[in-house]
Structures are given as structure tokens and as C-alpha cells.
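Re-running the complex after MR caught last week's input typo. The corrected sequence lines follow. Everything else is unchanged.
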Amino acid sequence: MPELPEVETVRRRLHRALRGHRIVRIEAAADPVVFDVVAPADFAHALKGARIVSTHRKGKHLWLGLDRRPWPLFHFGMTGWIHVDRVGTPERRFTKMVLETDKGVRAVFTDPRRFGRIRLQEDPAAQPPVSLLGFDPLEGVPAVAELQRRLVRRDAPIKAVLLDQSIFAGVGNWVADEVLFQAGLAPQRAASSLTTVEARALRSALLRVVQKAVDVGADDARFPRTWLFHHRWGKNAAALTSRGDRILHETIGGRTTAWVPKRQR
DNA sequence: CTCAGTGTTCAGTG
DNA sequence: TCACTGAACACTGA
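Corrected-run output:
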């Protein structure tokens, strides 16, 4: 479930588990889809022997800072993940990369659907795709006036604009729907039609949703009961919110969108 | 067997 | 060039 909160949660786990360790072994699967720009052997060679000094994230992109360059950069796509295990743990299915450290920690990148990507870059923060991202909500959302300035020239539905990574880095399908639900905004509203009051509601809902999801380690069982999240899945026509309001499912911005007409205008 | 899917990119159109 | 839409990508699981 890799949107901003999930990726940030993985980053924090990696940070605690790997920082200061030296990489003693790398296994990189022969998968030219996931390793789309670096040969797996070159990736392994670049990492082996290096020390992990930092972890980084912007939007849905995650990378490690090493004591030498280049650095590894990960994107989880729809089904990617990095699991932190101890060396000796049973293998996992759909493994694309295994990293083992001198202190016996193993990080495993898995991805059944193979939309994820593993790359190598000299300076991930300074080069595409990371350099092309908009603001990361966890690092702070622009003031309402600035936000509105960016929305006013967009005729697309606000749902689609929320998914635009060059503006809202890290927002994915469920975060977008949750934000619109909590802000009381109908997803098909043109972004340019938002009033200042509505843009303010959007801004604070975005901040609140992302912060809360990260605070609970992206563990959805700990999301507040009032969140749409718990009721939105499965395109169930009879689905209701915690207050008993009907949830509609329709395609907006090219994605399945769950929303509550009674609460969103 | 069919279809949806927590993401991104590209082709085609206006 | 830009903004927008819809298809394509690859594969699992319901």
C-alpha cells in the first residue's frame, strides 16, 4: 500500500534497522522491468561494501545515503515493499533485491506486480524523477494563497490534480479520497473552482491525514474510525461511512474514486 | 474466465 | 508547449 505514509513508515524502519551498517551481501534479481536502467550486477557491485549513513524520502520515492556514490533509489509502484528481516529468515516470494549487513540485518525488496523500480543515482534528490516532484506534505504544505495559485489554472477534477506528483508529492488514490472526504469536497469539482475557504479546508485535511497516518506507522487498524478509508474498498454498492452515509464509487481522474455525496460538495 | 487494482508514463487530442 | 484523457504496463487474487 505504498503512498506517502507507507513509504515513510518503511523509511523509518530502514533507518532504525540499517543506519551505520556495512552492506556485506547484495542479491539482485534478473528482472529488467524492475531494474529498468541499471543492470542487477552493476547495482550489486555499487552497493557491496558500502556503509549506510542515512535514509531519505520524497513523495513515494525512497533512497539510501551511503558513504560513497552512487546511491540506491526505490519506488514501490502498486505492490512493492521493503521488509526488514534478520539474516537466516525464510525467503520471501517475489523478491527483487536482498541486502544483508555486517550486523545480520536483511532488507528485502519484493514486488509481485513489477511496477516498482530499483535504480542507482549519483544524487537522487537533485535528479529526476525526485527533482521533478512538488511539495511533500510531511515537509509542509504551501500557504493557502500559494496553493490556490497553483490550483486556479487547472480545469481537471480536484481528484486528478491531487494525484499530480509535480504538485502533491506522495498523494495516492486512498489519500486523495480521504482528503476530499474530510475537506467536504466533491472529487469531480474543477480544481480551479475551489474558493479560498475550500482550498484552506483541502490544505488542512491533507496535512491532518498524512500526519496522522504517519504517526500510527501507516497501520490502517489505527486510523481513526471516522475515516472513509475503512469503508471504501471493494466497490460495495451498499457501503456506508461510520455515520451511515452512502459511499459512491466512480471513475474520476482515471482512478476508482470513493466519495460521499451527502458530505462532499 | 473475467476483472479490478494503494502507480507512472506515453500517445493522441484540443 | 501545456493540459487533459485514456490506454498500456505486469501480475495476483477474488
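None of the earlier attempt is carried over here. Chain A has a mean pLDDT of 96. Helices of chain A lie at 4-18, 40-47, 144-151, 158-162, 173-183, 196-215.
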